[in-house]
Amino acid sequence: MTVQEPDSPSVLDETRDPLMIAEAWMRDGRDVAIATVVETWGSAPRPIGSHLVIDAEGNFHGSVSGGCVEGAVIAEAVDVIDNGKPRMLEFGVADETAWQVGLSCGGKIKVFVERLG
Amino acid sequence: MDPHLLKKLNAERAARRAVALVTDLGDGRDRIVHEADQVAGALGEALAKAFRSGKSTTVEAEGRTFFINVHVPPARLVVIGAVHISQALAPMAKVAGYDIEIIDPRTAFATPDRFPDVTLHADWPQDVLGKQPLDSYTAVAALTHDPKIDDPALEVALRADCFYIGALGSRKTHGRRVERLTAAGFTQQQIERIHAPIGLDIGAANPAEIAVAVLAQVIGAMRSRGLERAVGDEAA
Questions:
Q1: Of A3, A19, A49, the CB nearest to B120
Q2: pLDDT digits (tens, 9 = 90+) for B192-203
Q3: What is residue B232's three-state secondary structure?
Q4: Sign for the pseudo-dihedral over CA of B146, B196, B212, B204
Q5: Which terminus of chain A is more solvent-facing, meaning fewer CB atoms within 10 Å of its CB: N or C?
Q6: Which residues, at least 6 apart from B77, have a Cβ–Cβ distance to it below 8 Å?
Q7: CA torsion sign, B2 to B7 to B10 to B12?
């Protein structure tokens, strides 16, 4: 008898796990890009390895920052889906676009964006 | 990324197997590496470290830049015994990021009242663990002091190669336990994997302090997987 069973993190949550969502989207025939945090400096909001998955219409799941640069990553991802060439993006306070899409926390991140398939 | 690779990666993650997706950042090619795979050179060293720490990283090897995205299953802690120590251990383990569950067939002990917000099985360990198999990313701490309840769990844990196995009890109690496990067919080498008396030696004087000692020992075992020397000392 199981007395109590709260949400168990040992099981992948298919409705929230970006890579599971990417697989489901692919199964539905949607074009998908996967963005991954590959390097961080200073205080970065999401750890290395975090994913944001994006489809050709700009729908997305997951995160690569606390919401600061997602908009820019999504725009780039739509391009990557178009031409199929992976791209490395860098964001940080030193970036000239800092005021629009920089990291307010003062950190720096590198995000790799690739097309699925 | 190759769609087949993503499917394979997700299947491995769902099955609680440690895998790394290694991407060549120059051309975007990637492949899956399992923890047991032998990989030579700087890439192999970085992979071993990533599997141990659970931290993803970028590494320069063979004149190329690789990104290692490591997916280690969330560590599970299965506690046998809904006892006083477990009441302190459950919230602490949760804070440390462990997915904890408690098994105790004694319904007077295993009550939601005593263990709010914890997965609790008021059933025999052999029945529960038959349905939810243990694996090498699971730690087992046997805390009931009752061989009828502890022993079956320890036997399953030894066979499943859990990364940590600990059992409460004095040296004398453990001596008798060793005799029983030997009679059950376990080798000395297998039995020596059991941490007993349980917990790091910090002079723990009450249930909450013993819980700290146990959790510290579990973390030490997790972070030294695959290393010859364990982090910290045994016996408390």
A1: A3
A2: 999 999 999 999
A3: coil
A4: positive
A5: N
A6: B89, B93, B98, B99, B100, B101, B138, B139, B140, B141, B218
A7: negative
CA quadruple B176, B179, B185, B191: dihedral sign: positive
Determine the Cα–Cα distance for residues A107 and B30; give it in Å rounded to an integer: 27
Name the pLDDT band for A16 (thresholds 50, 70, 90): confident
What is the β-pairing status of strands A32-41 and A51-55?
A: antiparallel
Cβ count within 10 A of residue A72: 18
Q: Residue A42: which residues within 8 A CB-CB, separation 6 or more?
A: A105, A106, A107, A108
CA B126 to chain centroid, in Å, comes to 18
Residue B94 near residue B85, CB atoms below 8 Å: no
Q: What are the Cα distances from residue A44, in Å, to A107, A116, B199? A: 5, 26, 35
Task: For residue B91, give how far its alpha carbon lies from the nearest alpha carbon of chain A (Å).
Answer: 14
Count of pairs with CB atoms under 8 A, one residue in A, one in B: 84
In a 3-state reduction of DSSP, which class is residue B59?
strand
List, in sequence order, the alpha helices (H) in chain B.
Answer: 3-14, 41-53, 84-95, 125-131, 147-160, 171-183, 188-191, 207-223
pLDDT tens-digit map of B48-93: 999 988 899 999 999 999 999 999 888 899 999 999 999 999 999 9
**Nearest-CA distance from A10 to chain B in Å?**
6
Question: ipTM for the complex?
Answer: 0.79
Alpha-carbon gap: B122 to the closest alpha carbon of chain A (Å): 6
Interatomic CA distance for residues B26 and B9, integer angstroms: 21
Question: How many other CB atoms are found less than 10 A from the CB of residue A5?
Answer: 11
A34/B10 Cβ within 8 A: no
| Residue found under tokens 């510290």 | B216
Is residue B103 scored above 50 in pLDDT?
yes
Give the C-alpha distances (Å, rounded to integers) separating B127 from A2, B50, B102, B110, B147: 11, 35, 13, 15, 16
Contact B138, B78 (CB under 8 A): yes
Residue type, B87: Q
